[in-house]
Each structure stands twice: as structure tokens, then as C-alpha cells.
Amino acid sequence: MKLSTYKIVIIYFLVAGLWIALSDEFLHWFISDSDLLTKAQSVKGFAFVLVTGLLLYFLVSRYVYALKKSYQQEQKEREEREAIWRCSSDGILGLSVNGTIFSANEQAKNWLDISLPTEKKFWDVFEHPYCEQIKNGIKELTSIDRPDYVFSIYGKVKKGNFDYWFEIRLNKSTYNSHDFIVGVLHNITEKIQHEEEVELLKTGFEQMDVGIALARRKGKVIFVNEKLQKLLNKQKENLLTYKDCLCVPCEKSDSCFHNLEETLEKGKVWHKICEIKSEDHSSIYHSLDVCPVSYKDEHFVIVIMKDITQQILSEKRLSQQYRMESLGYLASGIAHDFNNILGAILGHVDLILGEYHDHRNLVEEMDIIRRAVLRGRDMTSQVVSVSRENGGEQIPIDINNVINEVLTLIKPKISTRIKLDLDIDKELPKVLASPGKINQILLNLCLNACQTMVQGGTLVIKVEVINADETLLARHPELVPGKYIRMIVSDSGAGIDPEIMEHIFEPFFTTRRGKGGSGIGLYVVRSLVNSLGGGISVYSDLGKGTRFCVYLPVYSGDSEAKPLHIPHEEDIPRGKEKILIVDDEPMLAGIIGRLLIKLGYQVRIVNNPRVAKELIEQGLVSDYDLAIIDNIMPEITGEDIILYLQEKGFKIPIVLTSGMVNDEIVEKGNKLKVSAILEKPCTFSSLGKLVRKVLDENFMKEDK
Q: Do 561 and 622 lie in a common domain?
């Protein structure tokens, strides 16, 4: 507009100048009359004034219109800016170059909790350390002469208990030669909170004791925590798909994954417990869960893996404990009946030894039977004690005698195709053990060795004294420094598969199931060895043989071992008192009665507990000086008989007999206030001494 106005003015001045300079000349050429010329000059002047006025009017009108239009445009732009200023979702501020806030929209006022006018500096409304960073940013912005330079930073404002986060953009501007700063605040609180929540979830997943992975169903792995990488022993770079995050070995993947995709398609969680063999052939158990997740029309899976090895082992131990408890009850019942049989055998052996003590050959044969019966009694006791974690009395044992006894027992059972190779030190120190434990340990190991050599081979038994060195103590943490007797039992059989080596000492584990194997033998052996403060190890070469090494601590006390000996009848105390025997086993009751009669006692045997109850009812038991009552009888137990005796007021001494004496029987005896407990089978000597002791103690009580 200014350019066209200038053109009009210039043209006007040119035309006016030419008009003024030449118009009179033109008039003189055309008009010669002076009066007419004067009139023409008057008209010329009026026309010049009129044209000049019109032109001035046009120019002024044009200028006024332009000013009005410019003002309207500026007003419109101002209104638009104010609308944007008011309606913007961001906070907008005007700052002086020293940081003072001189203008702000409502959003900024609300967020920053300010009111205008204010002397507050922009950076003062933000938390530390952002206030210093913003202050330095404004100084930097004002010192740079670049209108396109934008300073960006994050800031945090605290209002009450809440934190608000902003993305701040500052730009220097100029208006009417005055510099100022425009600030724009973008609220990113939700974004920061979301990022913090994501980081919190990520941190939580990292700190969880389970392995977690997030992956696309048909794509790459998105997230894997450290625990899962540790469980899989793989780095994230090697986990390409979610199936790589599962612990199932490749050779088993087809069988394990056959229903995985089908389960996920149904929107269900796929679960599996996976067993993996470690480098040392031990079992590691992992619980696997694959959970389907849908998000924005995409399909993902979450893999959750947990090491449940200890849980599985605890469950197995608990199951074994229940089985051992059941075995304990079963063993107690069997031991009771078996000991009754042994009692009858032992009683008859003692009778024969008493009658034919001058027949040397017969005595030697009977002695072998007697020792075997006593060992059988000890073994049944050990089986029950192991199943119930109950020990026995420990005494110094001459291990040479035990080895000789075991050899006497196993030689008839060894196949002629098995060669027996012995390497036993002649002067072995004693060990502290309960009778029968070492016998049972050695016997079990020898019989197991023989059973592995079906086609023949060599059974080696080596016994020696060693000092526990650092290597042995490192291999057996349960041992302490000192001297040990090492018993080595080795065979040249098939050997043991490394995969089952760790299970051979577990109860009920056997490779001979259906062929007579119970899975109890080696468990009992290890339990007995541990109860003696020793250790056991096994070494095997598949196809070449197995070697068991048992370490038993040497006894350093002064007590002498108690050798087995044949009792002489004259050494057993005698008597003439009347004794009542109540036992439902006629054979065992009969042999006890015969032994007592041989010692001079008057004996009545009652095999039916109902008859015994009738005798009590009739008061006939008052004629007896002692009652020997069996603990377990059908329908009416020994406890019932004793309580009935006490109820009727009879105070005769009572000996409670049992095929298996344990803490439960002892507690029952104390509760019933019996005089003594007799374990079956019993020897002639122990029976006679116990009966005499009870009678004498009762006699002394009556005298008092």
C-alpha cells in the first residue's frame, strides 16, 4: 500500500509541475483575448485545486482505511493469541530476563500456584535441584543472541503430598525493543508416573525369586529378569523366543510342548514341573507357567519359572518320613512275631546247652545257632530303631569278633563262583557301637555285593585303621579329625549307573524291584553308620564294580568289650516261688516256663487272656509271687490284664514282656508301674537273673 501511494504522489507532483509550468503557455497559444484568458486561468486554478483536493481525499481515505484494516487484523490476531493463551493445555508464561514472572495463563497459575503481579522468580517454584538448573538455563539463554535457541529441561513442583512434573521450554523473544522470555510448561506427571510404575514393576520383577520373561507369542522376547537368566544359565541375547525361556531340554521339547500352543489358544495357563539333571547328575526341579496375555490386538506370553528343588525334596523327605513311620509300625509288628519265634529257638538252644554241655561238638554248633539268634534279635531291633530314629545302648566292640561272625554267616550264602579276598588288620582297636549294628552294616554290604555278581567275581573285604586327613574330612563334613576304622567292601559286579548313584541310600529305592529288592538295606546301613558318628561313601565304575567305604571312629575309652559267652546253669540264680505266665504264644510261653521250672520255680501258663481275667475274678492270682504278662495279645491286651489286676487290688510284681522294647513300651511300663520289662527273645541267663531280681526287690519291700 505504501508503494502505490508513493507512486500516486510522485505522478501527481510531476503532472502538477508540468501543469503549472506549461498551462499558461498552452492557454496563450490557444486564447489571445485577455478577458477570456483571465477566465480560463481562473477555471484552470479551480480545476487544479479541485483535483488536488480530490487526490488528497483519496490518499487520506486510503490511509485511514489501511490503518483501520491493520488495527482490525492486529485485534483479531490478539484475540486469537489470547484464546490460545487461555485455552492451551500447556502453561504459558512471560518472564523478564532476570527470571521474574510478569505474565501467565490460568493453567500456569494453577500448576505453579502463583498469582500476578508477583516478584517471585520462575525457578523458585521448582524443587531442588531443578531450581538451580533452570536458573542457570535462563542465564545461558539470555547470553546467547540466537532467536531460534530453545532451552529444554525437566522440573518438579510439590503441591501438598503430590509431585507434579513438567517439561519446560524457554525461548528468548523481543517486543518493542524489549527482550523477554517465553516459557511453555507441558505437564508430564502421568508420563513420569507411568515410567516410575514401569520401572517399579521391572525392579520388582528383577528382585523376585522367580524367573520371569515377557515375549510376543510369535515374536521376540521383550523382557527377561536376571533370575531367569541364572536359572537357564543363558544371556538375554540367546533368548530369541519365549520357548527359549523354558527349561525343558531340547531332546524332550516335542513331548513337553505338545499341548502348549493348544492351551494358550484356549486362554489358559500352561503348567509343567520339569526335572533337569545337573552336571553332577543331581536332579533340579523347575515349576513352569506360561500365561497368555492380550494387549491392543497383540498376543503376548508371560513365562514364570521357579526353582522348586527344595520343595520337591522336602515333599519326598516328608513322604519318606510317612513311609518310614508306616514301616516302623509294620516292623514293630513283624519284630514282635519274629522275636517270639527267635525266643522259642533261643530257649530250646539254652535248654540243649544246659542238658548237653559236656558234648563239645554239639555245644559249638548250638553256640553258632545261639549267636545267630541273638544277632537276629539285634537286627530286628535295629530295623525298628532306624525306622523310628531310636538308638540303642552302645558299648566298646571288638570289630574282629564281629567280622568273624559275619564271615561265618555269609560263607554258606556265597556262590562257589565268587572268590572271597580278605585283607584285615589283626590288631584292630575297638569301636563304640550297640550290639548288632556293625554286624548288620557289614552283612548288608557283603550280601549286596554278592547279589551283583550273578556270574561270579571277587568279593574284597578290607579293614584298616587310618587317620582322617583333610581330603577325607572335606569329602565327609560329618567326620571330625581323629583315627577311624575303614571297612572297604568291594565287588567286581556290574557297577552303579551314575544317574542313580545319588538315590541308592534313599529308603525304598532299589534296582531289583520284583527280584527280592526292598530298597531298605543301604538306607539302614547309612542310618546305622551315621548313628555311630561315622561316614559312608561309594565309588563305582559301570561294568567293573562298586566299592563301599565305611568310616567308624575308634573308641578311645577304657571300657572292655563285652564278649558273648555261653551261660552255665549254676551261674543263674534259682528260686521256688510260684510264677504265672500269661502269653498267647504257646511255644514261647512254654519255653519260658520250662526254663523257669529248670531253675526251680513253680509255673502256670495261661495262653488265653480271658482265662487269665477269670483267674483274677476268682482271686486265684493271690497264690502267685510273680506274673509275667505279654504286652500284645488279641482282644484283651497285657495292659488290660495289668489294669484289671490293679483294679481288683492285687499287688503282685509284674514283668511286662514284648517282642520289641522301645520308648513307647518303656513309657507304658512306667505308667502301669510294672516291676520290669523283658524283651523277647531273652537268654536263659537274662530271664533267670531278671526274675530273681524282681522277686528279691519285692520281698525287700514287703519286709519294710
A: no
pLDDT for 185: 92
Please write down the HEC assignment for all residues of 334-374: HHHHHHHHHHHHHHHHHHHHHHCCCCHHHHHHHHHHHHHHH
User: Are residue 614 and residue 496 in the same domain, yes or no?
Assistant: no
Query: Does residue 579 sit in the same domain as residue 542?
Result: no
549 and 421 in a common domain: yes
Cell of 289: 507357567
Structural domains in the chain (count): 5
CATH number at 175 reads 3.30.450.20
pLDDT digits (tens, 9 = 90+) for 652-683: 999 999 877 777 888 899 999 999 999 887 88
- Opening angle at CA 240, ends 236 and 243, nearest 5: 105
Name the residue range of residue 109's domain: 88-192
658 in the same domain as 641 = yes
What is the average pLDDT score of the chain? 81
Q: Which residues pair with residue 91 across a beta bridge?
A: 185
Would you place residue 642 in the very low, low, confident or very high pLDDT band (cuts 50, 70, 90)?
A: very high
Sequence letter at residue 697: E
Which residue bears the cell 492486529? 74
Q: Which of 542, 508, 543 is nearest to 523 (CA)?
A: 508
Predicted TM-score (pTM) of this structure: 0.47
Question: Phi, psi at residue 622, to the nearest 5°?
Answer: -65, -15
Name the band, by pLDDT with cuts 50, 70 and 90, for residue 704. Answer: low
Q: Which residues pair with 276 in a beta bridge?
A: 284
Domain boundary among the residues 292, 307, 322 is at 307
Instruction: Give the distance, in angstroms, between the CA of residue 298 and the centroid of all CA atoms in the same chain.
Output: 34
